[in-house]
Write a structure and sequence with these properties.
CATH architecture: 2-Layer Sandwich
Radius of gyration: 15 Å
Number of strands: 4
CATH class: Alpha Beta
CATH topology: Alpha-Beta Plaits
């Protein structure tokens, strides 16, 4: 069964192109690790909520926009294997893939405010 990994981040508006460049360098690595699709979306209609919303979830500042992204994996095992590699890289083991070296490809956003998780599809409707 497919696995969808979703991400929501706050990114400074001034870093929009830097984010796109970072994604263009990084997203192909997920495909090489077995992902079937990666989608990066820059918020253009993200309303403020009364109790909760995307902006509150990532503590977005007025000079930041919300980015919503997802990676489609063929199954949870493939996602978990890729996740283990990513965790190793985030812990400093760039030997896993030097293209993810934060010095060479720094994140243009505060990764500490990123929310993410893996999801199992339960309904899918296609045209």
């Amino acid at each position: 069964m497919a696995c969808i990994e979703g991400f929501v981040i706050a990114c400074p508006k001034a870093n929009r192109q830097a984010f796109i460049d970072h994604a263009n360098r990084s997203d192909s690595i997920f495909i090489e690790m077995g992902a079937t699709r990666v989608v990066e979306c820059w918020g253009d209609d993200v309303p403020d909520g009364k109790q909760t919303d995307f902006r509150m979830a990532v503590k977005a500042e007025p000079d930041e926009d919300v980015v919503f992204s997802w990676i489609e994996w063929p199954d949870k095992a493939t996602r978990d294997a890729a996740s283990a590699k990513m965790q190793a890289m985030m812990a400093g083991d760039i030997s896993v893939d030097p293209r993810m070296d934060p010095k060479a490809n720094p994140m243009p956003f505060d990764g500490k405010r990123m929310i993410y998780g893996g999801f199992a599809p339960v309904v899918e409707v296609k045209a």
